[in-house]
Known about the structure:
The complex is a heterodimer.
Chain A: H1 2-13, H2 15-55, E1 58-62, E2 75-76, H3 79-86, E3 91-94, E4 97-105, E5 110-118, H4 129-132, E6 133-136, E7 147-150, H5 151-157, E8 164-170, E9 176-187, H6 192-196, E10 198-202, H7 203-210, E11 215-216, E12 219-223, H8 229-239, E13 244-248, H9 249-252, H10 254-292, H11 294-302, H12 307-342, E14 345-346, H13 349-357, E15 363-364, H14 370-387, H15 389-397, H16 400-405
Parallel strand pairs in A: 5-10, 7-9
Antiparallel strand pairs in A: 1-12, 1-13, 2-11, 3-12, 4-5, 4-8, 6-9, 7-10, 8-9, 14-15
Chain B: H1 2-34, E1 37-40, H2 42-47, H3 57-65, E2 70-84, E3 89-97, H4 99-105, E4 112-115, E5 125-129, H5 130-136, E6 143-149, E7 155-166, H6 171-176, E8 177-181, H7 182-189, E9 197-202, H8 208-218, E10 223-226, H9 227-230, H10 232-270, H11 272-280, H12 285-321, E11 323-324, E12 340-341, H13 347-373, H14 377-381
Parallel strand pairs in B: 3-8, 5-7
Antiparallel strand pairs in B: 1-9, 1-10, 2-3, 2-6, 2-9, 4-7, 5-8, 6-7, 11-12
Helix pairs in contact in B: 1-10, 1-12, 1-13, 10-13, 12-13
Amino acid sequence: MFYLKLAWRNIWRNKRRTMITTFSIVLAVVLSSFTRSMQIGTYDQMIQNSAGIFTGYLQVHQNGYWDQPTLNNSFAYSDSLLSNIESLPQVTEVIPRLQSYALASSAEKSRAAMIVGFDPKAEEALSNPQKHLIKGEYPTSNNERAVLITEGLASYLNVTIADSLVLLGQGYHGMSAADLYPIKGIVEYGIPEMNRGMVFLPIEEAQYFFGTTNRLTAAPITLRDAQAVDKVQSQIEQQLDDSYEVMTWRQLMPELVQAIEADSSSGMIILLVLYIVIGFGIMGTILMMTAERQYEFGVMLSIGTSRFRLGGMLLLELLLLALLGIVVGGLLSLPLIWYFHLNPIHFSGDAASAMLEYGMEPILPFSTDPIIIMGQASIILGITALISLYPMWHAHKLNPIKAMRG
Amino acid sequence: MGSVLIGVWAGIFITAFSTGMTEQYIQNQLNTYVGHIQIHNPKYLSENLPRYNIENPDSLIDALKSKPFVTHMAVHSEVQGLAMSSANTFGVSITGIDTTEEKNISTVYRQLTEGSYLGGKAKNPVIIGRELAGELDLRLRSKLVLNFQDINNDISAGSFRVVGIFNTNNSTFDKQNVFILKSDLDRLLGKSGIVQEVVLRVDNHKQAPSYAQQLQSEFPSLKIQSWGDIAPELRYADVSMDYTMYIFMGVLILALTLGIINTMLMAVMERTKEIGMLMAVGMNRTRIFGMILTETFYLIFVAVPVGLGLGWLTVTLLAETGIDLSAFSQGLSAYGISSVIYPQLKSMHYLTISVMMAIAAVFASLYPAWKALTLKPVNAIRKL
Lengths: 406, 384
């Protein structure tokens, strides 16, 4: 206790020195939090760009649908089923879909296209065809006989709004499905695979077309907070019986998970180098502090303080400084990251056009997950603790006579 | 002056690491299937029918051969069709290749997991991707029927035997592409020597867009695209990496500058007595300011070259052995990057980074030097 008091007083004895050392720790926390938050923010954006555009964070299917995505593995739609999921606190929307493939033809040509039976109202929460509409109008009801087609398909088939589109495919249990629909609108997505061949058909009309009556192939779910995905998954699993499967975006899009992992490992290396640089910054100030206080240490040793206790006192001092530093650093990081979260850095020039072409917003987003700051703060604390070994070792080796003479 | 040394080293290392990683990713993809520049009949790209082939391919090829920047070239016949096995049917792109030319353009021949490349003794050979093999339930020596429209829009079909299965780390590519001999495909398409696609390798892939533009003005009737237009995701990877690099360099320089300010400030404080003494014996403020700056210069002159040497050494050594990232992630290879990264850096960048760090260090020493001037000689000499 006595040494804690001594350490505390030592800290405030030379305020300027304390400020400088603390500042280097504060800076370390702020810079590493900034960098990490930028990295995590980019991954969140990748997830948002993939899951938030079409797939959703979670999907409910008939058990076995994901292995064999056919209409025969669809499930019967019931209001209670979906409204039960919708009543979960984190869930913002449950979107009913009936999805299958069919041949889409104009007078001249045909191409295999993905037919998405959709609820025009609910779908606004996810793929939002209304926002991507570049021509024509948006269907208003679930049983309107009209289709939206993607721009890539429209230009391949050489059709435009008010033309007719013939759909020819296989329906539920091998029934043949064929019909002709007026094209009501054309939608454009940045992601080439989506833009190539998709047809949106209001869901009741799609169920009629495929002969599935009230069945759905998938119910994507959007969440208030993407982090809650695992919790919501288990909540939904509890509600449903074994005849359903509930999958998260990690299971639905394993390639995205891999892309993030790949990037994350290079991010680690970058962070590691940053730690080395800021570690040296902190070390510089601590070395200086040790050199400055030679005389004082010499006196303490000569009047009988044990080397062990002297070292302990120094460790306490530095830990107090480190705690102060990471708390202040953490508090300063919050508004900084929050600012960049609200006003993300915008890409310009070539980078921006490349990103737009790829269907991504040309910004560099920041994640505001408090875990990041806490994680970085504890890493910096660890680094500082490691560096404090030097003054302790120094106190252990110090020759009091030489120290006081200098 | 450890921090300047470390700063220079870190700047060099990070730039080399990131450049190495992005370049590797892009090169991998370009070498596997994209090539640097692709030439088509413009209608072929929108209609995808084999009758929209390149007219007079020989004169185009001769013209391309005379271009100094073209290092390799391959001509393909190509058609979109259906691949049918006894198990299933799948839509694929069928490319007819010349095996010797193709090996200079695409690394698929090195990415075979089973069997061998085209060009053996088997009649009507085909190589397919691992994903497609799964989809169609095909093995080596299985029979595969390819079905497509020929140049007269009549249906044509041929029976092929699987001689090799490749895995390029790009599952979409592996699912949608089969390769057969150009002579086989030409025969089925109904015209020998037909060309739907020319793929070029140029001396520097970064220059490909301007080369493509140059060729485009020379051959206005053809559609000439560079890799960025063919595979926008690669261009995105290229530019976004550059951008994050700049930001990270900013963070690094900030960390370095403030680190130096801190240490120098402490050093000046520690030398209060000495500086006070110098002032007391009549050294004027300009000279003291100059003295501290000169000290910084000396330190930079030692630290920057040492950091530079150390950075160069690290990069050169690691460029040989590579940095194995498999400890961090299994995802890399699936992403099209091998898990061993080989850092690389142009000599020009060594210089830019060193100069940048040196300038940052000079700026960082200004404040402590100025702070030294504000010391009062009397207070400074008095012992703490």
